[in-house]
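input
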Amino acid sequence: MLPLTRFQQALLVMLITIPFAVFIILTLNPAWNPAPSLPVFHFYIVTFTSLIALVVASFVLIGIGTTGDVQGTFVSMAFVAMAGFFMTHGALTPGIAIEGEYVSIAVGWAGRLSLLAGGVLLGIALADLPPQMQRWVTLNRRILWLILGVAFAVHLWISFDFPEWLEDAIRNQVFSGMLALLIAGIFMWAAFRAWSTYRRNPRTLPLALSIGLPWLALAQISQYAAPVWALSWWLYHILMLLAFSLAMIALVLEYEQILDFKLTRYFVSLSIIIAALLAAGLGEIAVRLTGIEAARWPLVGLSLVSFMVFFLIVFLVVRHGSTILDERAMALRREKQWRTDFTNLLVHDLKSPITAIRGSLNLVTLVNKDELQADQKRYLRRADQASKDVLGMIDNLLDVERLEGGAIPFNPAFFDTVQLLKECVDSVHDTATLNHVTVSASIPEDLPLVEADQGLLRRVVQNLLANALRFAPSDGYLYVRANATNNQLTVSVSDNGPGVPESDRVRIFDKFQQGQGAERGGAGLGLTFCKLAVESHTGRIWVEDNPSGGAGSAFIFTIPIVRAA
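output
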């Protein structure tokens, strides 16, 4: 995922602040803050929100969206806890399923416990835990889940049998206010941590949490401060639904990208959401058409049973299809492993003799440097350069396989961007002079230090320069430009060669692909390596027309800047 631009960051701030503005406006203008008592709608929205939270937890439990067992454990526990307590909040909706003197107290506590448990567990998930605690969590996850289950059981016991115990606490405004501020503060801190995580490693879930957690903070304030049934009170239900939905969408997007994609898990998770929506909708349609309130729940139950039967039938079909896809995916993985092994063997067998050829050429040049004529020296230099190019192709072939398999070491560190770019430009001057190509550069001296894999980026720039040299005509030019804007380092390498047709500008980065009609050397792997290396830094690379006008093209890549502290 690419880092956000300034415009996108401004939109993110608007998404976070608009609900706060709406809440303030409703609170300050009672005439705009009516209180429609809609217990059935309350039950529906709470139940649906809880189901989405359970889907989020199911994706996190299989390792999607989080980094490591510890973070995954606490994030999944957070969403399970919020789903459980919030579902109790819905079940205790007055006039729906349970009647009693203290139901209004128990329903309020269930809602607050939902946000309290979620805030604490998400805060722990996003905190930097000591290694000893991380090891303990990894070894004792079952104990943590047992503690959560016992806490939920105690909550149910008190809510249904002794709700009066909660009355004094919930009517204590000082205690309730301090608890609301504490929970809201935890969510805001967790949002800051999620944003920091996204800045270091742009991924979908941390970005979604950066938006959703401030909404949950406002939900806690709305739950505490707003009058029951008022629009400002309904706001907290809507915000929880939006926050959970945003997290679910982020996890689904990440799940679609993993290699171990299970169609059945995808189908089950999303079917639950769709079935709940349809069942609730049919129940409400029946009530509106017949005017009989008693028709709602029988039809909802009948719809759920019908959907369950239909779901089981379709699930068997999907499962069979998923099995076929898994078998084919396994065959593709075996084929890919065979190709990787063959590539490694080929690289090893080719690299040794070519290295020996280069060594012999250098030895001949060194021993006979005073006896060689100018033409002979030029031929030896060209032979040495050709063997060097072949070695570069072999390295690209090997590294492309490693990058695709995630096996190449990635060693980010802060380094001087200006020095790296100048060294790369200097390294091609001799070859450019030999081919009568002029090399020039515009590299500002104030480019920041960036945190990246210096070796990979050096190879990217060198490959783009070598690529441009092969395209540039005799008496042509090659131009390198760099700048740092919007927290991104942008580097472009342009030439005045034949250019890249519009139809080839995406395909040219694929393995063994070159522009149609191009007379370049190479195996078509250098640009593939560049694309994989840049994307490993969460950057992007593309080709466009020569910005100077006329013939030629410019290859441009950007990577996010993580500045040195």
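quick obs: The chain is about 65% helix and 10% strand.
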